[in-house]
Hints:
Radius of gyration: 20 Å
Order of helices and strands: HHHHHHH
Oligomer: single chain
Number of helices: 7
Shape: globular
Number of domains: 1
Distance between the termini: 44 Å
Structural class: mainly alpha
Low-confidence stretches: 1-40
Amino acid sequence: MRSSNPVFSRRGFSRDNGGYAGFDAQPQQAGTNPYATNPYATDPATGMPQAPARANVMTIDDVVSRTAMTLGTLIVTAALSWALLPVDPDNLGMSYGIAIGAGLIAFVLVIIQSFKSKPVPGLILAYAAFEGVFLGVLSAAVSTYIGPGVVMQAVMGTMCVFAAVLFAYKMRWIRVTRRFYGFVMAATLGFILLMLVNSLFAIFGGGDGLGFRSGGLGLLFGAIGVILGACFLALDFKQVEDGIAYGAPREEAWLGAFALTMTLVWIYVEMLRIFSILSGDD
């Protein structure tokens, strides 16, 4: 499946040679069993994955461990940035400048990885480190300027969204189909374009641009951003599920970790914005 992320349209687990399946895979011929040679086929009786028939294929443990490494790197660098880069309430511009600089470096690393034929763990962990600096400084600035409770609210909100989407996906309340994928991509493209236009108006016109990031409109677009992030979580879960089901190489687990990390960052930033607006209205 060629899943996507708010930052860029990344390479999924599908292959042109038919190695794995997903939205880009060719349809199965009538009468064929897509799990006939699948090393991670599901046992119809128990619903549990069967033992792999060959080594070096991706498992859920691989995805979990690499996601833990990626998120762990992000959390550690965020904590260090918060502690070692104190925020001056009288000069928040410097803090935001550091955050933007780290965010831009992280974005460049994302672009570099997107052009690689295989996942590069070093690039992914470096992305997590710079993204951690971005989130750490940004969170410290928000905590100083608005209130310390906002950051914890954003963290809890992100965790709740992740848990809710995972539960809904496991219960099959969310069905990731071509139509779902197309809708999410179209909605995300429109959302990003609106935010870019708003940013341009803010840069050249001053203030908050078109007002999409403050007040009632800010809350509305923040909620839309969280919903889109939740949809991308479902796409990420589908990507991982397809990779395991169709025997993706173990190294592809890094792509799953990369995707989940970027999506969680997206949701956290939107949550931080929502709770900042709500706290500012108190």
